[in-house]
Amino acid sequence: NGLLDRFLYLLKISTVIAMVFLGHCRVPTADGSLKQTSSLIKGDYILCHPTPPGGTPVIAEVSHILLEFDGGYMVRVTGTDLECSRRHPIKDPTTGKWIAADRIRPIPSSLRLVDTPVYSVLLAREAPLYTLIVEGVVVAALGCNLREGLSHTGEVSHPFYGTYWDVEEKMKEAHPVGFKRGRVVVTGIRRSGDDDGRTESFTRDESLIPDWAKD
Prior knowledge:
Elements: H1 2-13, E1 21-22, E2 26-28, E3 34-36, E4 45-49, E5 58-68, E6 72-76, E7 83-85, E8 89-91, E9 98-100, E10 110-114, E11 118-123, E12 131-134, E13 137-140, H2 164-174, H3 176-181, E14 183-186, E15 188-191, E16 199-203
Parallel strand pairs: 5-14
Antiparallel strand pairs: 1-11, 2-3, 4-5, 5-11, 6-7, 6-10, 8-9, 12-13, 15-16
């Protein structure tokens, strides 16, 4: 049964899938406008941390967008329009501490299985922080292990995709043409057998990619 197999596959990867959010989620850009994740492109400048009153905006350039066609369970963070993977590291708006999205309190208002594209963002290497703001919530960006943590102080570690350079190399191997253009499209993730579920490579099956997402 194809539908049953697909459901079981999504159920399996939902325990380790991380660092992704849905395309409708909006990100504040350097000019003050909001842009949907699905519309972000290489070279966009976005805010990577809230700006305190009278402070200077913390801005980073988008290096690559990772578009994944492997779905998974998504949670909607209570009181926001942020829908992200269950284990995505986010900054708790109440405590200011890093926490997995499905462990925030109050409990996320919804949990649903999606079979639609999910998105991740890789910021430029020189980004001051490896975070971005999505629907008003600070979330981890790809490669956040670089510099020992999301804010260079080791507040949280997230091994699933490895270091910044690991992510770059895996994206380039999976979709060379897309890597050059800044938009890498994959259909799955091959993970190690270790407990941390570290990504060994991204996979790309052309038959699973709709025409609008092909080169």
